[in-house]
Every structure is written in structure tokens, then in C-alpha cells.
Write a structure and sequence with these properties.
By secondary structure, the protein is of the alpha/beta class. 58% of the residues lie in helices and 10% in strands. It has 2 domains: 103 residues, no CATH class; 196 residues, P-loop containing nucleotide triphosphate hydrolases (Rossmann fold), CATH 3.40.50. The protein has 11 helices and 7 strands. The strands form 2 sheets. The protein has a 5-stranded parallel beta sheet, sandwiched between helices. It has a two-stranded antiparallel sheet with strand order 1-2. It binds adenosine-5'-triphosphate (ATP), magnesium ion (MG) and zinc ion (ZN).
């Protein structure tokens, strides 16, 4: 996965905060225990001096016997401290260093590679930007309500909107639960107010919580970012746009909402092609939602884009009556 430098810097800064919080908590615990146990402070200082001396000796060639002696003294002192702590009713490791991640001891690195904890923090940064885009914030599979969809058969689909949408939402739920490398691409197609954005938000939440990087953007804004990075290279706005474009191309799941509402230019068509095609070639999953039919997509974006959307995406058709209008009619 490619990392966006700006988000990685934020993730590292968060890790530094975590280290600082843990160090503060360790100091607090030590003060607390020292207040109760006379002699602990002196023991602790002695241990610290020994640790410094130990690491100094360890680097000096030929310090073998001296090192052995100091190690033994160190163990002895650790034992004394442990006994003292336990006698005061504290856990044996109460004043030890605190690590949020045992794997990398909060360094963020393991064998020169980013540790899983740093990746989680990175994805959380990405997801924070995502959640500011997810409107009300209560979109979840649990809140998804099938009652909004009619039970009378739809003449074209041959089944009721409720039955169709039960399958669609069930597919989305399974998709989110099982998301991983090689997950298919999805195409949400259907009229306005039928829950396309709602279900994308549900998927985004679950997938991001599982630790994958997710980007969510309307087609207008996403394609706009391609344009900005292309035409204002030398300024901050251009750099921001370039970072966003890297997210769109490199994230584990990209949700491109409302395709077909943005203005079509030859530039936006080529940007869309680049986005769709790059993600296909690199085997990254994408969800596209649109009000357009394939004929309209063909007309707007041409065969190169449309054949990819038709051939490489799992089509989910949204049917029913506009829930926005229904809510208004019912005053909800
Ligand atoms: N199953 C559902 N249960 C409860 N509320 C829903 C459900 N589906 C959609 N809504 C609500 O209905 C409204 C319209 O849904 P949404 O925005 O997802 O439609 P859409 O298909 O994306 O429409 P458009 O094509 O206009 O973007 C939103 O306020 C959404 O919160
Ligand atoms: Mg929508
Ligand atoms: Zn770690």
C-alpha cells in the first residue's frame, strides 16, 4: 500500500502522543507508589543508573565479567523492587514502562517496516477524514430499514422493491464483513433517494473499522481534485489535491459517489479513466454509485470507461420510491 505523507506524519504524531501519555502515566504511578513506599524512590534511581551502565558496558568489548556482575546486581535490585511493590499492594509491574503496542514498543517500526499499530493509526487518520464526509453519521447496517421499500411487485424487476433491496443490502453487508484484497468492485445503479449513498456509508464504516484504508468522495469532488493537481502544481492547493489523488488511487477501498452528476469535460473523462483503470490494474476495490443507466454512462464517458464499469463491476440495482420524498410526505 502506498502511504500518503501527510497522513503518515499525522499517524506518527499520534504515536508520539501515545508514547508521551504512557510516559506520563508511568511517572504518575511511580509517584503514587513512592508516596506509599519509603525506599522505592531510591531503589528506582539505582535501577535507572544500572540500566544506563548496562547499556554502556554492553557496547564495550571485553566487559564480559563486569557485565555479568552488574546483571546479577540488577536482577537482585529488580527483585527487591518487586517485593516492595507487592508488600504495598501494587501489581509487580506497576512502575514498569507502559507500551500500547508490545510488537514494536510504540516505535511504530518492526524490522524497518511500519508496524501494524502504525498502519492502524494511519487508517484512522484516513477514516477521520472519511467520517466528516459521511453525513449524519448514523448510517449502519443495523439502522438500514427495509420498510421504506414497497412490497408490491415491480413490473420491470419482477419482484418487490423490498425483496430486491433485501438482497442488495444483504450483499453489501456480506461484502463489508468479508472485505479484503481481491474483493470485487460494486456498481450501485438506480434512481435518486434509494439508499445508494446510505449503503456505501455502511460499508465504509465496517471496512474502515477493520483497519483498511477507505476513501469516500463524490465524483465531482474526486475528479475535481485530479484537475486541481494537474493545473495548479506549484501551490499548496495543488499539493493538497495531489495528496488526495494519491489516496483515491492507493486506498484499499474507494467509494466514488454520484457518478454522472458532475460536468463532463475531456479532462474529467480521462481522470475517471485513470482512476478506474489504475485501481483495476492494481487489484484495489472500488464502489461506484450512479443515477445513470449504462447507455447514459456510455454516452458521457465513452466505451473505454463504460466497458470497464460494465464488465468488471458487480451490478447492484436499487429500486423503489425516493425515500427523501417519502420522508417528507410522512413528515419524518
Ligand atoms: N434503508 C434506509 N433506512 C433508513 N433511511 C434510509 C434508508 N435508505 C436511505 N435512507 C435515507 O434516505 C435518504 C436518501 O438516501 P441516499 O442519500 O442514500 O439515496 P441515494 O440513492 O444516494 O440518492 P441520490 O442518487 O440522490 O444520491 C437519506 O436521507 C438516507 O439517510
Ligand atoms: Mg447519493
Ligand atoms: Zn506497533
Amino acid at each position: 500500500m502506498g502511504y500518503n505523507g501527510r497522513l503518515l506524519a499525522k499517524a506518527r504524531a499520534r504515536l508520539a502522543e501515545i508514547r508521551e501519555e504512557n510516559a506520563a502515566e508511568q511517572r504518575r504511578r511511580l509517584d503514587e507508589a513512592c508516596a506509599k513506599l519509603p525506599g522505592l524512590r531510591e531503589l528506582d534511581r539505582g535501577l535507572r543508573r544500572q540500566m544506563i551502565e548496562l547499556s554502556r558496558l554492553a557496547m564495550r568489548p571485553g566487559a564480559g565479567s563486569e557485565l555479568e556482575k552488574l546483571r546479577a546486581e540488577n536482577l537482585e535490585l529488580q527483585k527487591k523492587r518487586a517485593e516492595l511493590l507487592v508488600s504495598g499492594g501494587f501489581p509487580i509491574d506497576y512502575t514498569d514502562e507502559i507500551y500500547s503496542c508490545r510488537l514494536c514498543r510504540d516505535s511504530g517500526l518492526r524490522g524497518g517496516e511500519p508496524c501494524s499499530c502504525l498502519k492502524k493509526l494511519y487508517n484512522r487518520q484516513l477514516t477521520q477524514e472519511l467520517s466528516s464526509l459521511l453525513r449524519g453519521g448514523d448510517e449502519s447496517f443495523e439502522n438500514f430499514d427495509l420498510d421504506w421499500y414497497d412490497t408490491a411487485a415491480d413490473p420491470i424487476a419482477g419482484a418487490s422493491p423490498r425483496d430486491c433491496m433485501a438482497i442488495v443490502s444483504g450483499t453489501c453487508r456480506e461484502y463489508a464483513k468479508n472485505f479484503g484484497p481481491g474483493s470485487p468492485n460494486l456498481m450501485f445503479m438506480g434512481g435518486t433517494g434509494l439508499g445508494k449513498t446510505y449503503l456505501s456509508a455502511c460499508i465504509a464504516r465496517v471496512v474502515a473499522e477493520a483497519g483498511f484504508s477507505v476513501a469516500y468522495e463524490s465524483a465531482a469532488a474526486a475528479l475535481g481534485a485530479f484537475e486541481t493537481q494537474r493545473f495548479s502544481r506549484e501551490n499548496a492547493e495543488g499539493e493538497q489535491a495531489a495528496a488526495r489523488v494519491r489516496d483515491y488511487l492507493g486506498c484499499d477501498l474507494m467509494i466514488l459517489d454520484d457518478l454522472g452528476t458532475e460536468m463532463v469535460t475531456s479532462f474529467s473523462v480521462s481522470a475517471l479513466y485513470q482512476l478506474i483503470n489504475t485501481r483495476l490494474c492494481e487489484n484495489r476495490s472500488t464502489i461506484v454509485s450512479t443515477n445513470c443507466s449504462f447507455e447514459e454512462l456510455q454516452r458521457r464517458y465513452g466505451g473505454q470507461v463504460c466497458s470497464r464499469l460494465e464488465g468488471e463491476y458487480l451490478l447492484l440495482r436499487f429500486i423503489g420510491r425516493d425515500i427523501r420524498l417519502l420522508r417528507k410526505e410522512r413528515g419524518i
